């Protein structure tokens, strides 16, 4: 949105619209000191931590179905659900990590401690692969394979729990911590956060690419001990490097629990639910000095949506407000604090739209991988492409799309729209949703082709036999998913960071991961229901199933989802942010973005 000036009269009531020159001076000094730190020089230290987390996470999860079915001898549907449950939990724990970072520990220490917890999980996981007593014996001949016993599964789940908890502190904080190194309000620096998110996700793509090729190859051909030991060592290295960069970081202190403020606004609005609303928002309670620590980017000003929450900012006789006292926040809150809650609530419909996108993406690590297992994967007579490495085509497509988007598409779109970023994040997400629908539809048609090849070659009853059809038939669906991810996922991540109140950015980034979590759990639910009530998803022989029907079911659900998303995007209200207030001849001049 274009910047413009808005003039409002300043009421006499100091508590209503309080300003403080001393507070402004303190903020200005802090701002100058912060500018001596941060910037592009911090990126290697911050991104290396995220790269190592992704090497560890993806290096196992991409090939996890093979590990569970081949090493622990799990049935296919149980293994698929284990993968999606683990991925879902890893995307849910960021809510806990974000709460700790925003409320108490700050992002730096949350990242550091979480990385150590993740490292502990990787060590246990590596030991479970290295020690024979921690997994069932190999299958011998035609005998029924012995599934892992309770204690062996307990060791696996313990390692996954540590990994999920560690990931919960890294994921919501690294992206927000990295973006905070760029001071958008400094006129000497260009606005770079949208560029940061492009290259942040590019770095993730590179790490996923390495994990999907080098690590997966080591796991399949050298052994799981080395395949898990290498990312464990990388994780240990990342802690050291991240700590070395400490003197360079801009560290913003946590400004108290944003979750408590959200609860206080909700309680105050409920307690005042019976009092009449105020038609003129200038009579709502505002106190810039009180909100200084949670509004360094600028105050949130009043919006017309969710008017029932405005009652939390109405001053009544019972509030007994004095200029020298802080209000009882369980009865009275500032407009800024009310708008913090409104901003979060306005984001939730857009958050929900990302669930089915994540559900579709989850199939790349489960059923798409099993499709690849049955197809011809020889690149040469002696080299066989690991099935989990097929995701490399998705990663390459994503990386190429990010580069083209950043270097070409933005410049072209900028001339048309006039926006610095080319298109806004809501438009970027819509493009990703549409491409994902095509990707899932194509996956269904490829499955029809694969089963036809199995039938024609007489291998429909031989799940262990290789069907004479090239695994490269899966490239279109992987590539389309990669392109969709470059648009939707990065747009989704930027949306949460940009539209969240500044004191809740870790929490907002956690919301991004919880949409992925909900998508993984939705995948588990769909797979369970489809497996129970149909013959589409068999446990052992994929050739006898109807996987294409499952893909087309997902296509239909995504088509309905994009209609829902477009409606939500059309009526979405962007965060109303006002920068520092200047007083000219008794009038407030506020810059609004």
Mean pLDDT: 81
Shape: globular
Please compute the radius of gyration using only Cα atoms: 26 Å
Order of neighbouring strands in the sheet with most strands: 1-8-7-4
Topology, number of strands: 8
CATH topology of the largest domain: Growth Hormone, Chain: A
Structural class: mainly alpha
Give the uncertain stretches in residue-range form: 1-34, 185-190, 580-593
Membrane topology: Multi-pass membrane protein
Biased composition (Polar residues): 1-22
Subcellular location: Membrane
Family: Belongs to the major facilitator superfamily. Proton-dependent oligopeptide transporter (POT/PTR) (TC 2.A.17) family.
Q: If you had to describe this structure to a student in words, what would you say it looks like?
A:
It is globular, with a radius of gyration of 26 Å. The strands form 3 sheets. Strands 1-8-7-4 form a 4-stranded antiparallel β-sheet. A two-stranded parallel sheet has the order 2-3. Strands 5-6 form a two-stranded parallel ribbon. The chain is 61% helix and 5% strand. It has 16 helices and 8 strands. Helix 2 runs antiparallel to helix 8, helix 4 packs antiparallel against helix 15 and helix 5 crosses helix 6. The chain is mainly α and 593 residues long. Strand 7 and strand 8 form a beta hairpin. It has 2 domains: 105 residues, no CATH class; 456 residues, MFS general substrate transporter like domains (Growth Hormone, Chain: A). The N terminus and C terminus are likely disordered.
């Amino acid at each position: 949105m274009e910047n413009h000036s808005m003039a409002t009269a300043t009421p006499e009531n100091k508590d209503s619209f309080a300003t403080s020159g001393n507070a402004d001076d303190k903020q200005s000094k802090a701002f100058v000191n912060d500018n001596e730190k941060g910037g592009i020089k911090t990126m290697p230290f911050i991104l290396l931590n995220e790269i190592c987390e992704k090497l560890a996470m993806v290096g196992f999860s991409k090939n996890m179905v093979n590990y569970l079915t081949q090493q622990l001898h799990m049935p296919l549907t149980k293994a698929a659900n284990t993968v999606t449950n683990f991925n879902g939990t890893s995307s849910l724990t960021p809510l806990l990590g974000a709460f700790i970072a925003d409320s108490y520990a700050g992002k730096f220490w949350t990242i550091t401690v979480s990385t150590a917890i993740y490292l502990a999980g990787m060590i246990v996981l590596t030991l479970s692969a290295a020690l024979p007593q921690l997994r069932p014996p190999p299958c011998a001949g035609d005998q029924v394979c012995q599934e892992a016993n309770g204690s062996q599964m307990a060791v696996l789940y313990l390692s996954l729990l540590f990994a999920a908890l560690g990931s919960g502190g890294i994921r919501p904080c690294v992206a927000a911590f990295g973006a905070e190194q760029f001071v958008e309000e400094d006129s000497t620096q260009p606005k770079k956060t949208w560029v940061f998110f492009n290259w942040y996700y590019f770095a993730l793509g590179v790490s996923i690419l390495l994990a999907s090729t080098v690590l997966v190859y080591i796991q399949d051909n050298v052994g799981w001990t080395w395949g898990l030991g290498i990312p464990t060592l990388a994780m240990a290295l990342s802690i050291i490097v991240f700590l070395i960069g400490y003197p360079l970081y801009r560290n913003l202190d946590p400004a108290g629990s944003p979750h408590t403020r959200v609860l206080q606004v909700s309680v105050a609005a409920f307690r005042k639910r019976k009092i009449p609303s105020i038609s003129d928002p200038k009579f709502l309670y505002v106190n810039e000095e009180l909100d200084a620590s949670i509004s360094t980017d600028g105050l949130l000003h009043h919006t017309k949506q969710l008017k029932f929450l405005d009652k939390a900012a109405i001053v009544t006789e019972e509030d007994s407000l004095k200029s020298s006292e802080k209000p009882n926040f369980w009865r009275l809150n500032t407009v800024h604090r009310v708008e913090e809650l409104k901003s979060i609530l306005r984001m939730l419909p857009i958050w929900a739209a990302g669930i089915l996108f994540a559900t579709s993406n989850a199939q790349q690590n489960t059923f798409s991988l099993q499709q690849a297992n049955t197809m011809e994967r020889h690149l040469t007579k002696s080299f066989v492409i690991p099935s989990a490495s097929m995701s490399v085509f998705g990663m390459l497509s994503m990386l190429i799309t990010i580069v083209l988007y950043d270097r070409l598409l933005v410049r072209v779109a900028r001339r048309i729209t006039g926006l610095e970023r080319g298109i806004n994040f809501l438009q970027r997400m819509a493009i990703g949703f549409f491409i994902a629908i095509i990707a899932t539809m194509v996956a269904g048609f490829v499955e029809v082709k694969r089963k036809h090849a199995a039938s024609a070659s007489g291998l429909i009853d031989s799940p262990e036999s290789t069907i004479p059809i090239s695994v490269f038939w899966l490239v279109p669906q992987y590539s389309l998913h990669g392109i969709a991810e470059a648009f939707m996922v990065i747009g989704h991540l930027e949306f949460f960071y940009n539209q969240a109140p500044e004191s809740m950015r870790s929490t907002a980034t956690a919301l991004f991961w919880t949409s992925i979590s909900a998508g993984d759990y939705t995948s588990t639910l769909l797979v369970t229901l489809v497996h129970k009530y149909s013959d589409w998803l068999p446990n052992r022989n994929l050739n006898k199933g109807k996987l294409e029907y499952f893909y087309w079911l997902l296509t239909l659900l995504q088509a309905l989802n994009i209609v829902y998303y477009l409606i939500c995007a059309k009526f979405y209200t962007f965060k109303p942010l006002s920068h520092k207030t200047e007083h000219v001849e008794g009038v407030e001049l506020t810059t609004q973005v």
